[in-house]
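@channel anyone free to eyeball this complex?
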Amino acid sequence: MRTRGAILLANILTGLALGFTVTNIGFGDYAELNRMFTFQDLRMFLAFAGAVVIIVCVFALLRVRRTPGRIHAGVIPGAVLFGTGWAISGGCPAIPIIQVASGYLPAVVTILGIALGMRLCRWAGSRYFPLDSGSCGM
Amino acid sequence: MSSYWPWWAGAVGLALVTIVYTLITDRSFGVSSAWDRVLHWRRERRLEQMDEEFGDDRALAEALAAATAEHFGPAPGAFPPPQAPYGAAQPPSPRVEPVADGDLPVTGRRPAPLVTQAALLVSIFLGGLVAALVSGRFQLRYDMGPGFRDLVTADQPTMIALLFLGGILVGFGTRLAGGCSSGHGLSGCGRLQPVSIVATAVFFGTAVAVSFLLWKVI
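replying in thread with the prediction:
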């Protein structure tokens, strides 16, 4: 079940479904995103929160185990930086991809920024603040 | 904006994506981590090769430890588990951490193969492209839409600079926090992990504050 082929197939299907879903929810639309963050329109917020509620219930039923991860010193500053960047650029790491796919060409610049930011984080992390990498994707 | 999905359809869609991925791969799913690993593909590929080489040694060591325990009874603490090369190769950021309840996690022992994470990013693009084409929203344009123009800036160079700066903040911030809206927000909160709940609350709260600033003040 967890062969390389199965994982590859799962990633392709997940990517297709995620890109399709996120685009249709409207996360790539900067106006919609700002309306969500300012609570003018709860539709996208409910989509996200509703998804979390469903996942919590299903994971609890299936007894999905937790991944390693503790609240290290980078979590809060990192989340503050990420929240600021998301509100300004409209991109969490998946969104600029679907923005480009929807025709918003300047989102390529957001992707370049993300690439630089991630490289900076690894570079700075290995020199100045050795932290563990947390839970994302682990 | 009636052409977007109603909230419940979005919720079911996002939940299905996360649940199906978790069940098939036995891993937690996160886009920022996929980006991070693809961007550092040279180093990650080296780690993968090391992992394959050490795989046999580790299996041997585990088998030996198990056989010894069978003969002499389990000695608590006498046989530290052989260290995974992923942990050993990264002294500043150990990926394999013992969890609080002392149970070795099934998920997260090893990240998904690099090529699969590259496939994830490409597939997100294709899925988004299909959605945009099918819904008729696809439009090649050199701005970020009326929302960005009204709320942030109408000036092209300023827009490019802000997108780049925002991207850097997103890239740096997600890696520092160890996750993004999919890794912490969906996968982590779905597992009720304290770190993910804190991270999600903080990045969402910050985004709310900055968005209000953009909307009302600037």
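from a first look: The radius of gyration of chain B is 22 Å.
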